[in-house]
Design brief:
It is built from 21 helices and 2 strands. By secondary structure, the chain is mainly α. Among the domains are: about 50 residues; about 80 residues, no CATH class; about 110 residues, Orthogonal Bundle (Cytochrome Bc1 Complex, Chain D, domain 2), CATH 1.10.760; about 90 residues, Cytochrome c-like domain (Cytochrome Bc1 Complex, Chain D, domain 2, Orthogonal Bundle), CATH 1.10.760. It binds heme C (4 copies).
């Protein structure tokens, strides 16, 4: 059988590619004349979208992967990173961070000084500062015993918070972790980042960089301070002794060719501006005062966002990990139909305090949502992330007898489901089914068993071609797998 779903998926990518290419090459012209896209393109798109049963949402989804600039804003970067680090970074990004995406631009050290002078000139002079206990700002050797003990205590508290928050799911540290595939390696954070900035960043990432992919955790003040201390002081976030000198060895003397070095006139900052323009840093960075080739799409401000779920979605950046209606990442389960698959009450509990269903690398972080926020999330998912395809009614009020349950249990053993799923014991290839009766809509369990590949075409679960009777028995058994209270 040809897998039409997958084909469509690929086709959409091809169409998007064509559309984007078209917009990029003719973008200027389209913009000047009219905002109507070519009717032919619309028609092609509707053909490929026709069979998707997406429910219309009350707002437009903001895809964290389709940001106007790939790199972070440089407006206040001089408050974020120390100057020595910035110099080395612009000189050779991948010598500083193993997973750097910024290309090496071969600027001379004079050019780099000029660029930094420009970045300094656009920075916000009222960038907020924090108060820190004096002892924490001393070098370790200068701390009194009490100060050292205090610091150690904060650091170990911070380490526990780091673990619970699963920061490592996005951020590798010295090459380890980072399963989601976004976020810089933090293994040398302490030599780069200013602690005032760090505090504000973790507190409110979008306050600094509106289009960031990083979630805003709801940390208490003391949690925040512990986390900052851990990141600033622990050896995990300092360069290993032997890689200390690496950067310098690799510095290549840049020979002046035509171009940036011809810029001699003006103040240092003015020259820096010209160098930035010449090197097109603005293709990847928002930099104040630099003229743009293409108009930037206007951003919706926080105040214009009225839907509570939209706010949550943007704040926690759910779509950095989850896909919704074809937008966002693909690391975590797609949410498009989760309302029809999962029970509302379970969703609320889960997003508030994520339970363990899948193996370690696939667990959702705890963002410390309030009960009200979790309810908002669950209600929205139940209302909008649904599909008519699943017949949830037929099992809605079913109360299977002991005998029916046992019949399903025998089938579960006989079919070898245990190889991949755990109820009491079993494998970890598929999700844990211990509480599947609390978690999944009964009707969806049946639907899934009849056609395991319907929702996830490339899933490894075999299609057992179960009869309705067998699938019903298994459904009855799985419905009974609940938390014993
Ligand atoms: C969903 C993925 C994700 C999670 C989870 C996450 N981050 Fe981030 N973080 C990012 C991304 C992506 C960036 C870079 C900015 C951007 O491109 O949006 C970033 C940037 C940072 C930076 C700045 C690093 C630099 O060199 O610029 C720090 C520090 C940081 N995160 C700390 C944390 C901490 C601490 C946690 C856990 C409490 C955490 N992050 C959880 C995605 C994540
Ligand atoms: C092709 C895209 C691209 C270009 C061109 C580019 N950068 Fe970057 N830059 C990035 C990305 C992406 C990052 C984020 C770190 C990473 O993943 O590499 C970054 C990070 C930075 C940082 C560190 C910012 C932070 O918050 O940590 C600075 C400073 C910077 N770039 C300056 C420049 C300057 C100056 C130029 C032009 C001379 C430039 N970049 C050109 C993509 C680019
Ligand atoms: C850092 C990545 C990440 C972010 C951000 C994230 N999630 Fe998740 N989420 C996951 C992972 C991984 C799982 C799978 C957990 C498991 O199976 O143990 C998951 C599971 C879920 C599930 C259960 C899905 C299922 O079928 O088991 C729901 C519902 C959910 N997330 C909703 C949300 C919402 C709503 C947000 C934003 C408020 C969000 N998530 C933000 C990673 C993330
Ligand atoms: C080869 C491994 C494998 C076998 C054998 C297997 N499954 Fe699965 N199963 C999976 C995987 C992987 C998923 C997750 C698919 C997805 O993400 O959509 C899954 C999903 C499920 C789900 C939905 C749970 C959820 O959270 O999405 C149920 C219910 C289920 N399986 C029941 C069964 C039953 C009953 C059997 C035996 C008749 C069985 N499975 C056999 C791998 C397996």
């Amino acid at each position: 059988m040809i897998n039409t779903k997958k084909l469509n998926h690929i086709s959409i990518h091809i169409i998007m590619f064509i559309v984007f290419g078209y917009v990029l090459t003719c973008g200027g012209a389209i913009h000047a004349q009219s905002l109507e896209p070519d009717p032919l393109l619309l028609e092609i798109e509707s053909i490929y979208r026709g069979d998707k049963d997406y429910k219309q949402l009350p707002f437009v989804l903001e895809d964290p992967y389709k940001r106007s600039k790939n790199g972070p804003t440089l407006k206040n970067v001089v408050y974020k990173a120390n100057k020595e680090w910035l110099k080395k970074w612009i000189d050779n990004p991948s010598a500083m961070i193993p997973n750097a995406r910024m290309p090496r631009l071969m600027l001379s050290s004079e050019d780099i000084d000029a660029v930094l002078a420009y970045l300094e000139s656009i920075a916000d002079s009222s960038f907020p500062k924090q108060q820190w206990e004096a002892g924490l700002l001393k070098a370790e050797d200068d701390m009194t015993d009490d100060e050292y003990e205090n610091m150690e205590e904060l650091v170990s508290g911070g380490k526990a918070i780091w673990g619970r928050a699963r920061c490592n799911i996005c951020h590798p540290v010295k090459g380890k972790g980072g399963a989601v595939g976004v976020g810089p390696d933090l293994g040398r954070l302490a030599e780069k980042i200013n602690r005032d900035w760090l505090y504000l960043w973790i507190k409110e990432p979008r306050g600094y960089f509106h289009e960031t992919q990083m979630p805003r955790y709801r940390f208490e003040e003391d949690e925040l301070r512990k986390l900052v201390e851990y990141l600033m002081q622990d050896w995990d976030f300092k360069p290993d002794e032997d890689e200390d000198k690496d950067g310098d060895d690799e510095t290549v003397e840049v020979v002046a060719d035509e171009g940036p070095l011809l810029v001699h006139e003006g103040t240092l900052a003015e020259r820096g501006k010209k160098i930035i323009e010449f090197n097109r840093c603005f293709v990847c960075h928002e930099i104040e005062g630099i003229s743009e080739l293409l108009p930037i799409k206007s951003q919706k401000s926080e105040n214009e966002t009225t839907n509570k779920f939209e706010k949550l979605l943007n704040d926690i950046r759910c779509m950095t990990c989850h896909n919704i209606q074809g937008h966002g990442g693909s690391f975590a389960p797609e949410l498009t139909h989760e309302g029809s698959k999962l029970k509302g009450e379970w969703i609320k509990g889960f997003i508030e305090t994520p339970d363990i269903i899948r193996p370690l690398l696939k667990q959702m972080p705890k963002f410390n949502l309030t009960s009200e926020e979790a309810q908002t999330g669950a209600d929205f998912i139940e209302e909008y992330f649904v599909s008519d395809e699943f017949d949830l009614g037929s099992f809605a009020n079913v109360n299977p007898t002991e005998e029916e349950i046992n019949k399903g249990k025998e089938l579960y053993e006989a079919k070898g489901c245990k190889a991949c799923h755990t109820i009491q014991v079993g494998g970890i290839v598929g999700p844990n089914l211990k509480r599947v009766g609390d978690r999944m809509e009964n009707g969806f369990i049946f639907f899934h068993l009849k056609d395991p590949h319907h929702e996830t075409p490339d899933a490894v679960e075999p299609n057992y071609n179960l009869s309705d009777e067998e699938a019903t028995a298994l459904t009855h058994y799985l419905m009974s797998c609940k938390d014993e209270k």
